[in-house]
């Protein structure tokens, strides 16, 4: 019996950024060959100076694009991901050098070349004369989107056109901080409901609820901060543009100082290095509620804790917005600020 020739496909592009049209083309291509090689053609200088110039998106390093593709295809063992440098100057010689790099990483004869534009046919015929050029959804009927649109118009306008692994890179993180009983949890849950998205609860409370005791030890606070960071990362999955964070490492560090009158260098460094897109500090001007776990209900204590957290934020160079007033006022002001960062 004559041995059947194995078909090898190549699907390449800048993928700057990846959208669902790319994913669709990849899936279709993978059903037409025995193995498919995704090629990320990159030219850092061109991407930084030309593609990113005037773009609504920051530069996307090719290594991040590789990670995106590898996560998207992690359950497809017949799909392989590579990055190949290709100078983007429009010269055929550069295309030729790029194709040599592609052939090298694929390591076997390419039988099929896939794209979404028939205009590439003449070029591919010269670069891959033994391969069939197959065009997939040239008119973008399945997913009417392009990477150019995303760069020009922003990702939030076309959120439904992004794979989840790409969305996570553009989710806006809003940290809501303040002393105890200033309305953080209420505001976070209200905002998450309104924006139809995820939130991260104050982990200190759940930490002690799991123990069945609210007696605090110095070593608890670092554990709380670490676990909170884990849940922050998980909250980015399947999130709708923005995620709300109820307290963070600065507030945890503040409580360590208030309850035990000590500081922790690791907590301080976590507080300094963490990044959020918007910080909302709730002033303690709503009624203090004794839920059986709180200890600083006196007016002077509330002001002292509020001043402490402000000093800590200032030391870390955090640009935060103070919000006062009743619950309606807090919600209204917060929504206006959030809308400004996701439009």
TrEMBL record:
Q: Which UniProt keywords apply?
A: Nucleotide-binding
The identity of this protein, by name, is HTH-type transcriptional repressor of NAD biosynthesis genes
Pfam families linked? AAA_28, CTP_transf_like
Positions of NAD(+) binding: 19, 115-117
Q: Which Gene3D superfamilies match?
A: HUPs, P-loop containing nucleotide triphosphate hydrolases
User: From which organism does this entry originate?
Assistant: Hazenella coriacea
- Cytidyltransferase-like domain span: 10-151
NCBIfam families listed in its UniProt record: cyt_tran_rel (TIGR00125), PRK08099.1 (NF005988)
């Amino acid at each position: 019996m004559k041995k059947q020739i194995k078909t090898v496909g190549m699907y390449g592009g800048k993928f700057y950024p990846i959208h669902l049209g790319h994913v669709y083309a990849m899936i279709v291509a993978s059903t037409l060959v025995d193995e498919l090689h995704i090629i990320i053609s990159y030219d850092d200088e061109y991407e930084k100076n030309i593609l990113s110039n005037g773009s609504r998106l920051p530069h996307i390093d090719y290594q991040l694009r590789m990670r995106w593709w590898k996560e998207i295809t992690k359950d497809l063992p017949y799909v392989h991901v590579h990055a190949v440098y290709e100078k983007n100057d429009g010269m055929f010689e550069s295309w030729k050098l790029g194709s040599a790099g592609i052939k090298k990483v694929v390591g076997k004869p390419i039988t099929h070349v896939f794209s979404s534009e028939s205009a590439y046919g003449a070029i591919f015929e010269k670069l891959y004369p033994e391969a069939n050029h197959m065009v997939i959804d040239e008119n973008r009927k399945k997913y009417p989107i392009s990477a150019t649109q995303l760069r020009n118009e922003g990702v939030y306008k076309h959120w439904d056109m992004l794979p989840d692994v790409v969305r996570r890179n553009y989710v806006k993180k809003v940290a809501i901080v303040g002393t105890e009983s200033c309305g953080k949890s209420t505001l976070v849950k209200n905002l998450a409901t309104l924006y139809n998205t995820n939130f991260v609860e104050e982990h200190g409370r759940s930490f002690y609820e799991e123990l069945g005791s609210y007696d605090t030890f110095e070593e608890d606070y670092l554990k709380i901060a670490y676990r909170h960071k884990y849940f922050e990362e998980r909250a980015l999955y399947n999130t709708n543009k923005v995620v709300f964070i109820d307290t963070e490492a600065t507030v945890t560090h503040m409580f360590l100082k208030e309850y035990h009158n000590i500081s922790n260098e690791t907590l301080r460094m976590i507080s300094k290095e963490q990044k959020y897109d918007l910080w909302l500090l709730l002033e303690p001007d709503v009624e203090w509620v004794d839920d059986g776990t709180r200890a600083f209900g006196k007016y002077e204590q509330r002001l002292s804790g509020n001043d402490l957290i402000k000093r800590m934020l200032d030391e870390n160079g955090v640009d935060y917005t103070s919000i006062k007033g009743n619950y309606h006022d807090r919600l209204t002001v917060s929504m206006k600020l959030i809308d400004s960062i996701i439009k």
